[in-house]
Design a protein that fits this description.
The structure is a single chain. The chain is built from 49 helices and 17 strands. It is about 65% helix and about 10% strand. The radius of gyration is 39 Å and the shape is elongated. The chain folds into 7 domains: about 200 residues, Rossmann fold; about 60 residues, no CATH class; about 70 residues, Arc Repressor Mutant, subunit A, CATH 1.10.10; about 120 residues, Serine Threonine Protein Phosphatase 5, Tetratricopeptide repeat, CATH 1.25.40; about 90 residues, no CATH class; about 220 residues, Alpha Horseshoe (Serine Threonine Protein Phosphatase 5, Tetratricopeptide repeat); about 180 residues, no CATH class. The strands form 5 sheets. It has a 5-stranded parallel sheet with strand order 2-3-4-1-5, with helices on both faces. It is α/β, with parallel strands linked by helices. β12 and β13 form a beta hairpin.
C-alpha cells in the first residue's frame, strides 16, 4: 500500500498521497469511502492500482469490479466481480463462514457460494435483506484483515449497484473497510449524477485534472527520451491540456506529424496503433470488442473459427503493442476501454449484429460446458443480434436474465431485459406469440412496480389487457392488476370491475384461474365499502370450492387464505383454525416454508380465539420452524410472538424487553408492520401494569399513531383514560369514537380490541346505554376471546367484558356467570393477567352484592317497574327510581311490557277497534314499503353470510325476521306487489302517532333513568305493529306493571 513518500505516478503525488492516507485510516479500523473522478484516460484506475500495488506493512484484501457500458449487464455486476475476488482470495469455506445464516441469500451476489436459492419471500423485503447481508459479510471479513472494494467506471453503474454502494457507505458500522469508486464525471447522466452526489456526506472526493507542463515533460521523456521531451512538451501540453492518455498516444506518434483537433487526433493515434497489428490479431480484437473488456480465448475461438491456442498466440502482438494486458491470474484484458470502444465503433452495424450472434452462440456453448455465464450477457448479445439470428433466442434469454435479476431483487434491471427484447423484436417486425407477450408484459410490469415505477407498470398491464386474446390471459392480467393495486393503492372500483369482467370470461374455461380470480375479487371486496363487503364471504367460499377441484396446491393455498381473511372477525376462531391447519398442510406439500409457517400461525391464532389451550403446541411448532431457518424476519416474528406470550402470562418486564428488541430489529430490516405491532403490544402491556402515567401516554400515542383507524384509536384511548382515572378525557374519547362511526362499523378482528377497551370505559363512566348495547353485541361471543392480529396481543375473553358490563347494569347473576367463565377460559390458556382481572372483578361484584344485602336489596336479575297514580308515573330499573308526569307514550310502553314478545296493532294502542279483514289497516305508504324492501335485501345478504359461517342461531333469527317482513309486505300490497292507496287510512295515522309518543316518552326517561331508557330504546319496535322484545341479558329483567 502506498504511503506518503513512496513510489508515485507522474504528476499524481498529491492525490496519491490523499488516497494513501484514507487507505491507512481504514486499515486502522475506520470505515472509509472515496470517490475518484476525472475524464476517460485521466489515470483514475492507475492511481487506485498504485495505492494497492505499493508494498506496505499491511496486507489488504482487494476486490475489484468494473461496470459495463451499455445494456445487459446483470444487476450488481461490479459488486459481483469484487465479492467473487474476495471469495477466491479467502477460500470458499471462509466465505461461507462469514456469511453465516445469510449464505443462501448472499449466493445471489457471490457466485462462488453456489446457486442462489429460490424463495417466496416478499421481493421488496428480500432486496433490503440482500443489501443488509452484504454489509454484514464485508464487516465479518474485516475482523481478520483490511478489506478494500473498488468499483470502477461508475458512470455506467446499474441502479442496483448504486443502491448497494449507498447502503454500504451509509451503514453505521466500524470496520477495516475501504470503498473506492471511480467514474468519468463528464459522462454522468442526470440520474447517476444525483445518486453519486447523495454519497457526498459519507465519502471523500478526489478529482483528477490534466498534468502540469513539467509533469507532461517527465511523462513524454519516458516515451521519447529527455531531449525530445523538452522540445515536444509545451506543444503537447497545449494541445492535450495535460491529459495523460492523450499525451502518451501523441508522443508515440510525434514523428508522424499527427495534428488536428482532439479527440480526433487521439482516436487517430489509437487507430494507427491498431493498424500496426497483424490481420489475425485485428480479427480477434474485433470479436473481443463485442465480447467485452475481458477476453475469453475459448469464446473468441468459436467466434473466429479457430483454436484456443491460435487465439492466444494471435493476441501476442496486441500485448506487445500495449492494447491488451495480462491480469493477476493470467486472464486477458483490454489495457484501456478506449481501445475496445474504438474497435467497436469501427464495425459496421451488420458486422456488429453478426458478431453479437456469434458471441451469443459461443457463450451458450460455454454455458453448456458448465462454465459460469450470466444470462444477462446472453440476453444482451442476442438482443443486438436480432437481425442476424433467431429473435426467439433474444426473448428466451431475456426472460432467463429477468428471472436471474429477480433472484437478486434487481428489479429495474429485470424490467430492462424484457423491454429490450420486446423492442428488438418489434424493430425487425418479429411477432411475439400473444400468450408469451402477455406473460412478458405482466413480468415486466411487476418488475417496474417493484423498482418504484407503478405508473409504468399500469401502462404495461393496460397494454397486456389489450393484447390478451383468451380468457386465461384476461384472468392473468386482472390478477396482476389486483396485485399491483393492493400494493400501490390503485382505485379499488377499477380493480373490482376488471376482476369481475375476467371472472365472467374465465368461468367454465379454467378451474384454477377461475378460483384465483374469485379469491382475488373476494379479497378486494373484503377491503371495500361495507355494502360490497357482504359479497366477500360467499365469493371466498366459492373460490375455495373451485380450488379443491383444481388439483393445484398453489391455487388452493391462495383460496384458503382468502377464505380465512373473509371470515376473520370475532367468534370464528374454530373455523379459521381448521383453515390455518389446511394452509399449513398445503405449504408442507409444496415445500414452502413461508406458507407452512403462515398456516401454523393462523391455526394457533384461531385456537387462541376459541379459548383452546391447543394453541400452544401449534405455536411451538411455528417457533421451531422459524428458529431453525433463523432469517432476520424470522427472528423478528419469533420475538414479537414471544412478547405476546409474556403479556398473556403477565410478565410485563420480560414482554417489554422482547417488544422493544423486536421493534429495533423490525426497523432495521424495514418490516412494514413494526409500528402497528409495537402499539398493539403496548396496549396489552399497559393493561398488565395498570400504571396511570403509562396508560395516559398510551392514550395519547394511540390517537397519534392510528390516524387511519380512528375508531380503534379512540376506543383504546377511552379505555386507557378510564383505567387511569381521567373520566373527563375518557368521556371525550367515547364521544369522538361515536363521531368516527362507532364500533359497530368495524367488523374485522379489531372489533375484539375495541370491545375490550370500550367496555372498560363505559363501565367506569356508568354509561348504561352503551353498556347495554355492548353487552347485547357480544352476547353470542362469550365462549371466545379477542386477539389483535395473528397472535400479536391477547385482548381477553369476551366473557370478561360481558361480566363487567352486566355488573354495571345490575344483573349480578349474569355478571357472576360471565366472570366465572372468563376465569375458566383464562386458566386454560395460561392467561395469568386475565385470571387476575377476572378475580378482581369478582371481588368487586361480591362487594356490591354485600352492599346491596346490607341495604335490603335482593341480589339477582335486574327488576323494573312502572306504576301510575293519577297523573304521575313512578318508574324503576335496578337502582334507578324516578317519578314523572303522565304522557300517552308511557301508557303505550306499559301495555307493550305487559304483553312481552307479542305484536300489538298500533290501533289497539291508540284505542281504536281492530279493523276488519281487508280494511285500510293493512295498507302502507310508499316510503315504508321501500324501507321494508331495503331491509329484505340486507337480510338476504346477512342470511348468506350466516350460512357460510354456519351460524345457526343467527340463521334462525334472520329467517324469522324476513318471514315477518314478507308477510307484512304481502298483506299491504296488491296483486303483483302494487301498493294500495293510504289516502286517509286510520291505521297509518295510528302508526305515526304511537311511534312518536313512545319515542317522546323514552326521550323523557333518558334524563332521569338513563339505564331504563336505554333498555326500552333497544327493546321496543314501533310500526303498524309494535312490540317489546328484550334480548340477551335484557331478557332476564323482572317487570312489575301497575296501571
Amino acid at each position: 500500500m502506498t504511503r506518503p513518500g513512496g513510489a508515485t505516478i507522474i504528476g499524481r503525488a498529491e492525490p496519491q498521497g490523499r488516497l494513501g492516507q484514507v487507505a491507512l485510516a481504514s486499515a486502522m479500523g475506520r470505515r472509509s469511502a472515496v470517490l475518484v473522478s476525472g475524464e476517460a484516460g485521466m489515470g483514475k484506475t492507475s492511481l487506485i492500482r498504485a495505492v494497492f500495488d505499493t508494498a506496505s506493512e499491511c496486507s489488504t484484501l482487494v476486490g475489484w469490479g468494473t461496470c459495463w457500458q451499455g445494456e445487459g449487464a446483470p444487476g450488481f455486476w461490479p459488486w459481483m466481480q469484487a465479492l467473487d475476488d474476495l471469495t477466491r482470495a479467502i477460500g470458499r469455506d471462509a466465505a461461507i463462514a462469514a456469511g453465516g445464516y445469510d449464505r443462501d441469500r448472499l449466493a445471489a451476489l457471490i457466485r462462488e457460494l453456489g446457486p442462489a436459492a429460490e424463495t417466496t419471500d416478499d421481493p421488496d423485503r428480500r432486496r433490503f435483506l440482500l443489501l443488509d447481508a452484504a454489509v454484514r459479510w464485508l464487516e465479518n471479513l474485516t475482523a481478520d484483515q483490511h478489506v478494500a472494494i473498488v468499483l470502477d467506471d461508475l458512470q455506467w453503474a446499474d441502479s442496483s449497484t448504486l443502491d448497494l454502494l449507498d447502503h454500504v457507505v451509509a451503514a453505521p458500522v466500524e470496520a477495516r473497510l475501504l470503498i473506492i469508486g471511480a467514474y468519468r464525471h463528464d459522462e454522468l447522466d442526470p440520474e447517476r449524477r444525483t445518486r453519486l452526489a447523495t454519497l457526498g456526506s459519507h465519502t471523500e472526493h478526489i478529482h483528477l485534472e490534466g498534468l502540469a507542463l513539467e509533469d507532461v515533460e517527465e511523462l513524454v521523456a519516458t516515451i521519447c527520451g529527455p531531449a525530445l521531451a523538452h522540445t515536444l512538451a509545451r506543444d503537447l501540453h497545449s494541445r492535450t491540456g495535460g491529459h495523460p492518455l492523450f499525451v502518451r498516444e501523441l508522443a508515440r506518434l510525434s514523428g508522424a506529424g499527427v495534428r488536428g483537433p482532439l479527440p480526433t487526433a487521439v482516436t487517430g493515434a489509437v487507430t494507427r496503433r491498431l493498424e500496426t497489428l497483424p490481420a489475425d490479431s485485428r480479427r480477434i480484437l474485433d470479436a473481443a470488442s463485442v465480447l467485452g473488456n475481458r477476453l475469453l480465448p475459448d469464446v473468441l475461438g468459436i467466434v473466429v473459427d479457430d483454436t484456443v491456442a491460435a487465439v492466444v498466440n494471435g493476441l501476442d502482438a496486441a500485448k506487445e503493442a500495449g492494447v491488451i494486458r495480462t491480469g493477476p491470474e493470467e486472464e486477458l484484458w483490454f489495457t484501456h476501454d478506449l481501445f475496445r470502444e474504438t474497435l467497436y465503433s469501427q464495425l459496421s452495424l451488420t458486422e456488429r449484429a453478426r458478431l453479437h450472434g456469434r458471441v451469443g452462440d459461443a457463450l451458450e456453448a460455454r454455458n453448456r460446458r458448465g462454465a459460469r455465464v450470466s444470462p444477462g450477457d446472453l440476453a444482451r448479445h442476442f438482443a443486438h443480434a436480432v437481425t442476424a439470428t433467431d429473435p426467439g433466442k433474444a426473448i428466451h434469454w431475456a426472460r432467463e436474465a429477468a428471472r436471474d435479476e429477480r433472484r437478486r431483487a434487481a428489479f429495474r434491471e429485470s424490467a430492462a431485459h424484457l423491454r429490450r427484447a420486446r423492442l428488438a423484436a418489434a424493430d425487425v417486425g418479429w411477432m411475439i406469440d400473444p400468450d408469451l407477450l402477455v406473460r412478458m408484459l405482466i413480468e415486466e410490469a411487476d418488475a417496474e412496480a417493484r423498482s418504484g415505477e407503478p405508473g409504468v407498470a399500469r401502462d404495461l398491464l393496460a397494454e397486456a389487457a389489450t393484447a390478451a386474446a383468451c380468457p386465461q390471459q384476461e384472468a392473468d392480467v386482472a390478477l396482476a392488476v389486483q396485485r399491483l393495486g393492493a400494493k400501490f393503492a390503485a382505485p379499488r372500483d377499477e380493480i373490482i370491475a376488471q376482476l369481475e369482467s375476467a371472472l365472467d370470461s374465465i368461468t367454465g374455461n379454467d378451474v384454477a384461474r377461475q378460483a384465483r380470480v374469485t379469491a382475488a375479487l373476494a379479497r378486494e371486496l373484503q377491503h371495500s365499502v361495507s355494502q360490497d363487503r357482504r359479497r366477500a364471504g360467499p365469493l371466498s367460499e366459492e373460490a375455495l370450492t373451485l380450488a379443491r377441484h383444481s388439483d393445484d396446491d398453489e391455487t388452493l393455498a391462495s383460496c384458503l387464505l382468502a377464505r380465512h381473511d373473509a371470515l376473520w372477525r370475532p367468534g370464528t376462531g374454530t373455523v379459521r383454525s381448521v383453515l390455518g391447519q389446511e394452509i399449513a398442510a398445503v405449504g408442507n406439500r409444496l415445500g414452502d416454508t413461508d406458507r407452512l409457517a403462515e398456516g401454523l400461525l393462523l391455526e394457533a391464532n384461531g385456537l387462541l380465539e376459541a379459548g383452546s389451550p391447543g394453541f400452544r403446541p401449534v405455536l411451538d411448532r411455528w417457533f421451531g420452524l422459524l428458529c431453525a431457518r433463523n432469517e432476520p424476519r424470522d427472528r423478528y416474528l419469533v420475538q414479537t410472538r414471544r412478547a405476546a406470550l409474556a403479556l398473556l402470562e403477565g410478565d410485563g418486564d420480560g414482554a417489554e424487553t422482547l417488544m422493544y428488541d423486536a421493534a429495533a430489529l423490525g426497523e432495521k430490516i424495514h418490516e412494514p408492520d413494526t409500528g402497528n405491532v409495537l402499539m398493539s403490544q403496548r396496549v396489552a402491556l399497559a393493561r398488565v401494569r395498570n400504571e396511570p402515567d403509562e396508560l395516559a401516554a398510551l392514550a395519547a400515542d394511540a390517537v397519534r399513531w392510528w390516524t387511519g383507524a380512528p375508531v380503534l384509536a379512540h376506543a383504546v384511548a377511552a379505555g386507557a383514560r378510564a383505567a387511569a382515572g381521567d373520566l373527563d378525557a375518557a368521556a371525550r374519547e367515547v364521544a369522538m369514537l361515536s363521531e368516527a362511526g362507532g364500533w359497530r362499523n368495524e367488523d374485522s378482528y379489531l372489533r375484539s380490541v375495541l370491545v375490550a377497551d370500550l367496555a372498560v370505559a363505559v363501565t367506569v363512566l356508568h354509561d348504561a346505554k352503551l353498556c347495554a348495547l355492548l353487552l347485547d353485541d357480544i352476547a353470542l361471543l362469550t365462549d371466545s376471546c379477542g386477539v389483535n392480529g395473528a397472535v400479536v396481543a391477547f385482548a381477553g375473553p369476551f366473557a370478561h367484558a360481558a361480566g363487567i358490563l352486566a355488573a354495571e347494569l345490575g344483573d349480578r347473576d349474569l355478571a357472576g356467570t360471565m366472570l366465572g367463565r372468563s376465569i375458566d377460559i383464562s386458566r386454560r390458556l395460561g392467561a395469568v393477567v386475565w385470571v387476575r382481572q377476572g378475580e378482581s372483578a369478582q371481588r368487586a361484584l361480591a362487594s356490591s352484592q354485600a352492599t346491596a344485602a346490607r341495604a335490603g336489596l335482593e341480589p339477582g336479575p335486574v327488576t323494573a317497574s312502572m306504576s301510575r297514580a293519577g297523573k304521575i308515573w313512578t318508574v324503576s330499573f335496578g337502582t334507578e327510581r324516578a317519578s314523572l308526569p303522565h304522557v300517552k307514550g308511557l301508557a303505550d310502553i306499559a301495555v307493550l311490557v305487559r304483553h312481552q314478545d307479542q305484536d300489538l296493532s298500533a290501533l289497539q294502542l291508540i284505542g281504536s277497534p281492530p279493523p276488519a279483514a281487508g280494511k285500510p289497516e293493512d295498507l302502507i305508504d310508499i316510503e315504508a314499503l321501500k324501507a321494508y324492501r331495503r331491509r329484505l335485501d340486507e337480510l338476504d345478504a346477512e342470511i348468506d353470510q350466516a350460512t357460510s359461517d354456519t351460524d345457526l342461531a343467527s340463521i334462525d333469527r334472520l329467517i324469522e325476521e324476513r318471514d315477518q317482513l314478507l308477510t307484512e309486505v304481502r298483506r299491504t300490497t296488491g296483486l303483483g306487489g302494487r301498493i294500495r292507496t293510504v289516502a286517509n287510512d286510520p291505521a297509518e295515522r295510528a302508526r305515526k302517532a304511537v311511534s312518536a309518543r313512545i319515542r317522546d316518552a323514552i326521550h323523557r326517561l333518558y334524563s332521569i333513568t338513563p339505564r331504563l331508557a336505554a333498555h326500552l330504546d333497544r327493546s321496543i319496535k314501533t310500526g303498524l305493529r309494535c312490540s317489546y322484545v328484550p334480548t340477551g341479558a335484557d331478557a332476564y329483567i323482572r317487570w312489575r306493571v301497575d296501571v
